[in-house]
Amino acid sequence: MNHHRSFSEKELMNDLLTSEKQVCSAYNVGITESSCSNLRQHLTSCLNDSQQIQYQIFDAMRQRGWYQIKKANSQDVMSAKTKYNQEKTQLQ
């Protein structure tokens, strides 16, 4: 008895989204671990491409109602900016 399960478009897109997130993470590690400027530049370009692909998949899922997002209110955004600017200042 052969049972072949087909994945839905939603499942496939979710898998693609998860895979792209992992690829982006791997590129980040490669960039931070590389001491060769040419390699860093190439990996950064690959990272930017992967981030664009990840966003396109995310946006397609969002448009289909398969990826719900919560809009941040402006006070939360300002609070986060303040927090990270303070941390950035402390590191300088």
From TrEMBL:
It holds the Pfam family Coat_F. InterPro entries: Ferritin-like (IPR012347), Spore_coat_CotF-like (IPR012851). This is Coat F domain-containing protein. It comes from Alkaliphilus peptidifermentans DSM 18978.
